[in-house]
Amino acid sequence: MRLTSYSIIIFIITSFNCLITSNTLVAENSAVILMYHRFGETTYPSTNIRLKQFDLHLAELRNKNYKVLPIREIISKLKIGESLPEKTVGITIDDGYQSVFSEAWPRFQKLKFPFTVFISTALIGKNTKKYMSWDQIRTLKSAGVDIGAHTNTHNHMATSSHNVNIREILTSNEKYLIELGGIPEIFAYPFGESSTEVQNLVKELGYKSAFGQHSGPIDAKSNFFNIPRFALNENYGNMKRFRLILRTRPLPITELLPKSPLISSNNPPSLGFTINSETLKLSSLNCFSSRTGKLQLEKLGRRIEIRMPKILPSGRTRVNCTMPRQDGHWYWFGRLFVVPEIN
Questions:
Q1: Which domain holds residue 258?
Q2: What is the predicted pLDDT for the residue at 4?
Q3: 250, 271, 298: which is the final residue of a domain?
Q4: How many CB atoms lie within 10 A of CB 260?
Q5: pLDDT digits (tens, 9 = 90+) for 144-166
Q6: Pairwise pLDDT comparison (6 vs 291), residue with the higher score
Q7: Are residues 34 and 229 in contact, defined by beta-carbon separation less than 8 angstroms?
Q8: 113: which residues sit within 8 A by CB, 6+ positions away?
Q9: Does residue 17 sit within a domain?
Q10: pLDDT at residue 223 greater than cutoff 80
Q11: Mean pLDDT of all residues in 175-186
Q12: What Å distances lie between residue 151 and 63, 167, 168, 286, 304, CA to CA?
């Protein structure tokens, strides 16, 4: 068949557009994971979301056509390179407080939003005014709610010994088998804090992915054993921040150092990464520490080096790096550092 000049031009343009679309899909194949703890328990503002705030969150997800998918489906698709819908969101809840059953679940049921609850087994059934019972958790599981692992006693894994962490996981696994008939596939670190050693242990013991509590969206290049989530509570649950979170995309980075969130030496640490894109303007990149505010960046080509201005105190320090996009979205990368308590 002979092609006219016009047909050839149309063919070239169409092929070029397809290439652009394909590249865009790869770049935009990401998701935002939300994290909650308590619902309507105003005595605990640091881990609670007010019900009015929560209702506004759910309305935003529903009215703006966000695609709330099961966590395991999101992770599975990213791992195999399968495309996610635009505006994909996942919902997680830590610890299994009673208000998950009484307040959050009925709302999720009404909207048919899937979610995952991470359970620390030793806490369940001892104080049913505070935590859910195993009967309630079985009810959730029977209704399709995903149950994730969260150790036995909610120990601080980053600073616990290797043997303690093994015991915590194996003890909780035994309890999941007894009470739920199976061991969860996904894990969340208590307090969201881990180390490379802890991450490797969780992987070795059979879990398919694990979550932290540092901020940021996820994509196929994320560390699936330290997956970021955006934590929401009374102080950080307003609609301005919530809408911003939903508009984030992963900052394309490689060669991240240090690899471990645990800082046992070399304090203050130096944070470094390479921006894996030639088109992004590094002049618009800003990084902030939860301890000292805006950080000084050293730019070596596409390499970013950040030297903390002073020694990090014991506990956690968050670092967030953001870059605005022309379409109103934001590139976002979050890092959590953990410094052990000095005895």
A1: 254-339
A2: 39
A3: 250
A4: 18
A5: 999 999 999 999 999 999 999 99
A6: 291
A7: yes
A8: 58, 61, 68, 91
A9: no
A10: yes
A11: 98
A12: 36, 9, 5, 36, 36
Q: Rounded mean pLDDT of 79-84?
A: 96
CA neighbor of 124 nearest in space, from 105, 144, 149: 149
140 shares its domain with 183: yes
**Residues contacting 180, CB < 8 A, separation 6+:** 137, 138, 141, 147
Indicate if 61 and 170 belong to the same structural domain.
yes
